[in-house]
C-alpha cells in the first residue's frame, strides 16, 4: 500500500485550522508481519479514523483506541513512541512487533453556547468563529438562525424550548444568553443554574435586569451563592450599546474568563 504525504499535510492543516483535536500515527518499524509499509500514516480524531491507514485490522484498531485516549488526557502538542508486541499487546496470532509514533495535536476545546440569534448574535458569532472555539447558537426562530453565515465551527439548533438542550453541552461550556427578552432568558438561566457548574454564564441586560433576575431566581429556589455565578450585564464595561461594540465587550470578557479557567493553553503576552 502507498500513501500521499502531501494529502496528509493538507488534511492535518485543515484539522488544525478548524481547531479539531487530532493525532497523526506513523508506522516506524515492523518486525514480523504487518499489512502496511514503514512510514505509513493515519489521522485520527475523537470520532475515529479520519484519513490514511497504518494497516487496518487489530493494529489499526489498537492505534485508534490509543489515539482517542491520548486526546482525552493530553493537552498541547506532544509525541509518544510505543512498541507493541503483536501477540501480547494486540492479540494477533502472528509474532513480531510494531513501532508506532503518535503526534498529538490537542490545544483543548473551547465550547461556547449562544442562546439567541438576534441582532447582537448576528454581530457576535461571525467574530467568535475566528477564535479557537466551537460555537452553538440556540434559538427557536429558524428565520434568525438562517441569517447567520454557515461555518465549520458553528452549529445552529432550533428547539421549541431552548432550555431543553442545556444539559446536552459538554462540561466547561461557556453560556452566553442574549435572547429576545427576559421571558426567553429566564428558563435557560434557571436550567443552567439548577443543573450545571459552568465556568461562565453571561446574560444580556442592565443592572436593573440583574436585580429582577435574582429576585425571580430566589423565588424559584436558586440559592444566593448560585445567583452570584452569572454575569449581568454581560461583557466588560466598555464601548457603547451598538450590537458590534456589545459583541467586542462580550468577547473580551469571554477571553478573560477562558484564560483564568485554563480552558486552552495560551502564552502570556509581553508588550
TL;DR of this structure?
With 271 residues, the chain is of the alpha/beta class.
Structure notes:
With 271 residues, the protein is α/β, with parallel strands linked by helices. It folds into two domains: 5-106, no CATH class; 111-261, Rossmann fold, CATH 3.40.50. It has eight helices and ten strands. It has helices at 5-17, 57-73, 119-128, 142-147, 182-195, 207-219, 224-227, 243-261, and strands at 22-32, 41-45, 48-52, 76-85, 96-106, 111-115, 134-138, 154-157, 174-177, 200-203. The strands form two sheets. It has a five-stranded antiparallel sheet. The protein has a five-stranded parallel sheet with strand order 8-7-6-9-10, with helices on both faces. Helix 5 links the parallel strand 9 (174-177) and strand 10. Helix 3 crosses helix 8. It is elongated, with a radius of gyration of 23 Å.
CATH superfamily of the largest domain: NAD(P)-binding Rossmann-like Domain
Major beta sheet, specifics? 5 strands, antiparallel
CATH class of the largest domain: Alpha Beta
Provide the helix percentage. 25-40%
Query: Major sheet: order of its strands?
Result: 3-2-1-5-4
Span between termini: 51 Å
Amino acid at each position: 500500500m502507498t500513501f500521499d504525504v502531501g494529502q496528509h499535510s493538507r488534511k492535518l492543516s485543515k484539522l488544525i485550522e478548524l481547531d479539531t483535536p487530532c493525532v497523526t500515527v506513523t508506522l516506524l518499524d515492523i518486525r514480523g508481519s504487518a499489512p502496511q509499509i514503514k512510514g505509513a500514516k493515519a489521522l485520527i480524531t475523537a470520532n475515529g479514523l479520519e484519513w490514511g491507514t497504518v494497516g487496518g485490522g487489530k493494529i489499526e484498531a489498537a492505534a485508534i483506541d490509543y489515539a482517542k485516549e491520548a486526546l482525552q488526557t493530553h493537552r498541547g502538542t506532544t509525541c509518544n513512541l510505543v512498541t507493541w508486541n503483536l501477540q501480547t499487546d494486540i492479540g494477533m496470532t502472528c509474532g513480531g512487533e510494531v513501532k508506532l509514533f503518535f503526534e498529538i495535536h490537542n490545544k483543548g476545546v473551547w465550547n461556547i453556547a449562544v442562546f439567541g440569534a438576534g441582532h447582537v448574535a448576528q454581530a457576535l458569532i461571525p467574530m467568535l468563529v475566528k477564535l479557537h472555539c466551537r460555537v452553538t447558537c440556540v434559538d427557536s426562530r429558524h428565520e434568525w438562525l438562517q441569517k447567520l453565515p454557515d461555518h465549520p465551527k458553528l452549529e445552529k439548533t432550533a428547539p421549541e424550548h431552548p432550555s431543553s438542550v442545556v444539559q446536552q453541552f459538554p462540561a466547561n461550556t461557556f453560556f452566553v444568553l442574549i435572547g429576545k427578552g427576559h421571558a426567553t432568558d429566564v428558563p435557560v438561566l434557571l436550567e443552567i443554574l439548577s443543573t450545571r457548574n459552568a465556568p461562565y454564564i453571561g446574560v444580556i441586560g442592565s443592572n436593573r435586569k440583574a436585580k429582577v433576575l435574582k429576585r425571580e431566581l430566589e423565588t424559584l429556589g436558586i440559592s444566593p451563592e448560585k445567583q452570584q455565578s452569572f454575569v449581568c450585564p454581560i461583557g466588560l464595561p466598555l464601548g457603547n450599546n451598538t450590537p458590534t461594540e456589545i459583541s467586542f465587550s462580550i468577547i473580551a470578557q469571554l477571553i478573560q474568563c477562558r484564560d483564568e479557567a485554563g480552558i486552552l493553553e495560551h502564552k502570556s503576552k509581553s508588550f
